[in-house]
Amino acid sequence: MIRLMKHFQANFKKRPLKWIVRLSIIFACLMIGVGLSVILYAYMLGAPPLTNTQTTVYYDRESNVIGEEHGVENRYWVDLEDISPNIIQATLVTEDRRFYDHVGFDVKRILGAAWKDISSMSMAEGASTITQQYARNLYLSHEKTWKRKLKEALYTIRLEMFYTKDQLLEGYLNTIYYGHGAYGIEAASRYFFGKSAEDLSLAEASLLVGVPKGPTYYSPYHHYENAMTRKDQILTGLYEQDVITEEQLFLAKKEHLALFEEKDRSTKVFAPYFQDVVLKELQQVLGKNLEDIRSGGYQVYTTLQTDQQETLEETVVKTIDPQTELQTAALAMEPNTGAIKALVGGKDYEKSQFNRVTQAKRMPGSSFKPFLYYAALENGYTATTPLMSKPTNFELADGTVYQPSNYNGYYAGRSITLAQALALSDNVYAVKTNLFLKPETLVETAKQFGIKSELSPVPSLALGTETVSVHEMVSAYSKLANGGANITPHTITKVTDAKGNVIYERDTAKQEQVLDPKLSFILTHLMTGMFDESLNGYMRVTGATIADELTQQYAGKSGTTQTDSWMIGYSPSLVTGVWTGYDNNQAIEKMKEHQYAKDIWATFMEHSHEGKPLETYPVPEGIVGEYVDPSTGELATPYCENERLMYFVEGTAPTSYCSLHLPPDEEQKEHEHEEETEKEDKKKGFWDWLPFVGD
């Protein structure tokens, strides 16, 4: 080898020109050979399809189609002759001026872009022809890698080999993405201007041609000024290429563009807020961007229970006065798995796509109290732990005084139990408990339940004065409903590719236990008290207005602030949370508007459990049940007016019997004794009342 190299060097020095010619011929032959091989390979592969039928489809939990990601109504195929010449001319001038002259690659543009890429050591410059863009849109991702570029080149050769230029231009214009779920010029024309692509004016066509470069950045709905600037640049390009006259340029730039209003679109999407959540989750589980998902042909199997979704939407419409600006958010979840079965993010998706389940944060009010009472149970409280319910001033560490108040200023004026405090939503009891445990404990407990929103460790946190989302609250309640296991809320169970190959499947392994199952059960049973009028005291239980509608044993808690109304409750198989309020934090002044959340919740839960057997919460080992007098917290006797079954960890149940309600004869003796004492007191003279004074 060394001798050969020396021989080559010696001959090259003697006759350099001859060897340069020889090497050039060899290199050219190699390149021709590679080129012919690629062409032969492309020919053997055959003609690729001109349309992309890889629509991503969403299914409910019964495998019924519920939607398509930018579905059929957003994909219209029109012939080239049915597309306005304004669109065709603007597209060619803007995207590929030599489209009809090259064979798929614009060598001049490629060399210029390559030089800039090499100079900057990046792949920022693009020199894609219409055919190359078409190949990428149909078959490939939009990542900038050499591997993808090589695949793009092969597809480009195949397209140019088997189809005419008009066919390629037609296909390109029918598949390019214009934003807002509109694929193809016909879909874009209908979406933006409410007309067919053949009727577009020069100005309208120029605006649409500018959108694909950045479907969000150049959307006239999102960035109007950007879209108008881009439109004028395209018009100027048409003038400079002598496609339009100076007069046409002037008139087109001055033309008023009447964009199609959102309210004029009649397309309805089923469970649109739910589908938005699915799309966001799909990006996370697949690790792909929106463009890849749109062209991926994925089959997405979701957790949606269609009949429950329909019930929830119908209930919202029937319950809330259509004349009010009051908004709502509702979420139904399977507690054992975290599967989201129904979701409503607002009253009208067409008017507002803001998802109040996942995006809004509001004060939960007393619906936050279960986290406090779980912490209390962890720290020695039981269902019968008594605390005084009366107006109380709390002097805080910084010297300030905090005085919480109960609803309408009602107080028991005596000690009440935890069971009654939760059922009646006594605020004084809650704040006393929070200060006894320390507010930092409540913050940590809320985190244990999965609350991720920032919480301040203040006394009023017990009354739900920090802001959280409906999604967080329903997820947290699910941990109580399932006995304390951690769950991950989700909308997707499985994803397959267009050929049915599973590319993602949710792990159904048993979740980590994060709460004590005994305390979770006790708290769950205590939360059934909001519907049990045996716990009535200085006021009725908070769920009394809907208790007669309920046929299952539900656990729950309501919450009311000046601006928010909540109802969250569950059975062993379903957790549902409903919020109502105004987007601008306007005060809820009408009583019926405060009732909406409870009414929606009760109607939905009953419909969801219709025809199902009575569900019960399994009692963990180490738990005992005792019938207790709600007024005293002592063991009930046959003489108590009311009694309620309450649960305790073994060794913590009350042992004394009710001393307030006595047998009839004992009550009579007690009454007679009181009367005799009163008579004796009346017989005493003045001196009899003076204390004895002795030596």
List the main descriptive attributes of the protein structure presented here.
alpha+beta; Penicillin binding protein transpeptidase fold; Beta-lactamase; 5-stranded mixed β-sheet; 5-stranded antiparallel β-sheet
How would you summarize the topology of this molecule?
Layout (H helix, E strand, L loop, with lengths): L1 H13 L1 H30 L11 E3 L5 E4 L16 H11 L11 H14 L9 H10 L6 H17 L2 H11 L9 H9 L8 H9 L13 H17 L5 H9 L17 H15 L3 H5 L4 E4 L3 H14 L7 E7 L6 E5 L24 H10 L7 E4 L4 E2 L5 E2 L11 E4 H7 L2 H11 L1 H10 L21 H12 L10 E5 L5 E4 L11 H11 L16 H4 L7 E6 L3 E7 L4 E7 L9 H18 L14 E6 L15 E6 L14 H20 L12
Parallel strand pairs: 1-3
Antiparallel strand pairs: 1-2, 3-10, 4-5, 4-14, 6-9, 7-8, 10-11, 12-13, 13-14, 15-16
Helix pairs in contact: 1-2, 2-6, 3-9, 3-10, 5-6, 5-7, 9-10, 10-11, 14-22, 15-17, 15-18, 15-20, 17-18
What does this structure look like?
The relative contact order is 0.08. Residues 120-125 and 684-695 have low confidence and may be disordered. The chain folds into five domains: 2-45; 76-264, Orthogonal Bundle (Penicillin binding protein transpeptidase fold), CATH 1.10.3810; 302-362 and 468-616, DD-peptidase/beta-lactamase superfamily (Beta-lactamase); 365-466, 3-Layer(aba) Sandwich (Beta-lactamase); 621-674, no CATH class. The radius of gyration is 37 Å and the shape is elongated. It has 695 residues and is α+β, with helices and mostly antiparallel strands. The protein is built from 23 helices and 16 strands.
